[in-house]
Amino acid sequence: MDSMLNKVLRIGQLYDFYNALLTEKQRDCLNMHYLQDLSLAEIAEEFGVSRQAVHDILRRAEQTLEEYEQKLGLAVRYSDERKLLAEVVTDLEQLPSDIRKLSAINEALVKINSLLEDTREV
């Protein structure tokens, strides 16, 4: 069960980065299966194809997403940058309060936290 959840999260993340590089049918199938939680049979009925055809489309689309990630690394970079930003926030928040009163540090904290909050919605 946990590995399935990890797969869904992984495909969702890769889909966010690379969906525009997939065919329309691949995008639709991934969207319906992973985001709308439709079964292979439901998707097959929607497209007028077999369950096996949907399975093949999904498998190829997932493989394509993984290949794009191997070549471009956007998801890994995004994750690494978020971790680094979170570490910077923690470091700044641990500064003594008299130093934190400096407006430049507070402005930096607000901007970084804003970036982190904006990207949590992605």
Tell me about this structure:
The chain has 122 residues and is mostly helical. The chain folds into two domains: 71 residues, Winged helix-like DNA-binding domain superfamily/Winged helix DNA-binding domain (Arc Repressor Mutant, subunit A, Orthogonal Bundle), CATH 1.10.10; 45 residues. The protein is built from seven helices and no strands. The chain is elongated. The two termini are 24 Å apart.
Brief rundown of the structure:
This protein has 122 residues and is mostly helical. It contains seven helices and no strands. The protein has two domains: 2-72, Arc Repressor Mutant, subunit A; 76-120.
Mean pLDDT: 89
The residue ranges in which pLDDT falls below 50 over 5 or more consecutive positions are none
Helix content: over 70%
Helical stretch tally: 7
Shape: elongated
Structural class: mainly alpha
The CA-CA distance between the termini, in Å, is 24 Å
Radius of gyration: 20 Å
- The total number of structural domains is 2
Would you tell me which CATH topology of the largest domain applies? Arc Repressor Mutant, subunit A
Helix and strand sequence? HHHHHHH
The CATH first-level class of the largest domain comes to Mainly Alpha
The CATH level-2 architecture of the largest domain is identified as Orthogonal Bundle
Strand content: under 5%
Beta strands, count: 0
CATH homology superfamily of the largest domain: Winged helix-like DNA-binding domain superfamily/Winged helix DNA-binding domain
Main pleated sheet = none
